[in-house]
């Protein structure tokens, strides 16, 4: 591996955090990866020697001073109380509230609110299977939130009994599975279809925000979250096709 990233290290350290980490000749250690090694107390070794200047060193504190409650993600600050304009990225690492990861969380939270409102209205209409299918999308949105906030790996799951390839296949070939062409949404389709379309387009927006939040100079962190959001929007589009073809009635 030529580039050593933070996401690679986090995956490597899930079972055990070593005392030292060896960087081979020609390998590049990204700044965020170096910061993570510093936070975990792992020493960097190149050619058998510890590279003292490679990891940003925190400011020295008097021996009697208590450890700070919060630190600024990326280094450069320590806090005993959380400033109002900042929030937790994860653990005790703080970032400004307009950080891309925090903005992504807020929009993902909005998606959950939209699903709940849609379920409430559709339940009143008696479309129980559609309410159930939306419940699976809600569960996935909540799983994404948990994985992002706790810095966990999001496990793949099915939606409406369909795996990743099946979701793509059905959403790309509506005539084969639903007897209808790709939908051209119009105002007279009824509120159920229009509500689902609003949810689908909002999920696509959140997917773009996820790319912005997890993209760094060398790679995409948490690609499984971006993939899950893509499959989520495909699932909602399939719900639109099922509703249009009368499969929920």
TrEMBL record:
Keyword terms, alphabetized: ATP-binding, Nucleotide-binding, Transferase
Coiled-coil residues: none
Pfam families in the cross-refs: Cob_adeno_trans
Taxonomic source organism: Desulfobotulus mexicanus
Name of the protein this chain belongs to: Cobalamin adenosyltransferase-like domain-containing protein
InterPro entries xref list: AdoTrfase_EutT (IPR009194), CblAdoTrfase-like (IPR016030), CblAdoTrfase-like_sf (IPR036451)
Domain Cobalamin adenosyltransferase-like span(s) in chain numbering: 81-242
GO MF: ATP binding; corrinoid adenosyltransferase activity
GO biological process annotation, one example: cobalamin biosynthetic process
């Amino acid at each position: 591996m030529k580039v050593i990233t933070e996401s690679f290290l986090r995956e490597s350290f899930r079972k055990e955090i070593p005392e030292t980490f060896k960087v081979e000749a020609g390998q590049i250690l990204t700044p965020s990866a170096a910061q993570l090694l510093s936070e975990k107390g792992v020493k960097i070794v190149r050619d058998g020697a510890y590279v003292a200047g490679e990891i940003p060193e925190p400011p020295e504190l008097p021996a009697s001073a208590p450890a700070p409650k919060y630190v600024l993600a990326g280094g450069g600050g320590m806090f005993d109380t959380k400033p109002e304009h900042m929030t937790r990225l994860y653990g005790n690492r703080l970032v400004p509230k307009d950080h891309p990861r925090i903005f992504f969380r807020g929009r993902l939270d909005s998606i959950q609110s939209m699903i709940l409102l849609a379920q409430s209205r559709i339940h009143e209409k008696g479309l129980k299977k559609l309410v159930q299918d939306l419940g699976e999308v809600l569960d996935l949105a909540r799983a994404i939130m948990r994985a992002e906030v706790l810095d966990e790996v999001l496990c793949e799951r099915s939606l409406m009994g369909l795996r990743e390839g099946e979701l793509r296949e059905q959403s790309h070939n509506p005539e084969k599975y639903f007897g209808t062409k790709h939908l051209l949404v119009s105002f007279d389709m009824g509120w159920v279809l229009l509500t689902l379309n609003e949810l689908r387009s909002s999920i696509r927006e959140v997917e773009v925000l996820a790319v912005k939040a997890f993209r760094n100079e060398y790679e995409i962190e948490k690609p499984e979250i971006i993939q899950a959001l893509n499959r989520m929007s495909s699932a909602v589009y399939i719900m639109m096709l099922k509703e249009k073809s009368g499969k929920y009635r």
